[in-house]
Amino acid sequence: MIKESKLKKYVELFTRKIATYLSQDISIKTVIHPVESEGAIFEFFLGLNNEETVKFAPVQKTVGHALLSIPQNMISGTPENIKFGGTNLYLENNRVVVIKGDDTNEEWSGTAIEKDVTRVVTSSQGAK
Amino acid sequence: MPLQGTDIEGIHKLADSIRIIEGFTENHGFDGSLLNVKVSSGKPTPIEIKKLDLQLIGFFIAALLALATVGCNVYFDIPPKISTLLLLLGIISAGFAVMAAHLKFENTGATTIITCFLLAVLVIGFEIYTPREVADKAAEKLAPGT
After folding, report:
1. How many separate domains does chain A show?
2. CA of B21: which chain A residue's CA is closest?
3. CA quadruple A109, A15, A125, A73: dihedral positive or negative?
4. Between chains, do B21 and A87 touch, taking CB under 8 Å as contact?
5. How many whole angstroms separate alpha carbon A112 and alpha carbon A5?
6. Domain that holds residue B56
7. Domain residues for A114?
């Protein structure tokens, strides 16, 4: 997904919906990782009085390639060979990483974003 | 052509490295205090809903009261003293409406627009200015020199 308007819309809706759950004075800084093939990665950094900025990282070939540029302990080895489907979430320290594997309307709709936020919120309290 | 041993190993390696991840969630030491989550419910608490609704209800009541004072002044033949009282009531109501709107929407632009509209309705309704004068003043503010 490289369509800027759709990526920005996702960020706008995601941050708006998760805002009701944020603790006091917590704000979100976002980095969008667009990819040439299907899907995209969003990094949401939650912090105390963060600047609420939205930045675009350079466009990568696939979601797997984009994952190489993100510090993460979710996938070891060579993520560029991994195929992603649906919505995958990775929560670490003050960061929420949303990995979208498809470009389907179902995965990018308002209802899907609500589900993503609910998944983030419900899994946020149970760290491994 | 039959596959050589090295080819088969290569295919095995490739098969091992190609994985599909779908609908996966992992919490790797996320700071749960960043999110204010009530375990019993994922939705905002009823108290928050009530608070938000009160602001909206307050805005509508105050705005309606301000408009009602204008309505009374326009439709009923009332003495000047009562008209002044109605004007004061209208200003107070408009003030409350603006405050409630600002608390509810937290948007300076929306508050400014509501303030301008309520003021325009009050000054026209109480015949302080004619609609044309209000339009001229608004045009002067929006596009000076026209």
Report:
1. 1
2. A84
3. positive
4. no
5. 17
6. 41-142
7. 4-124
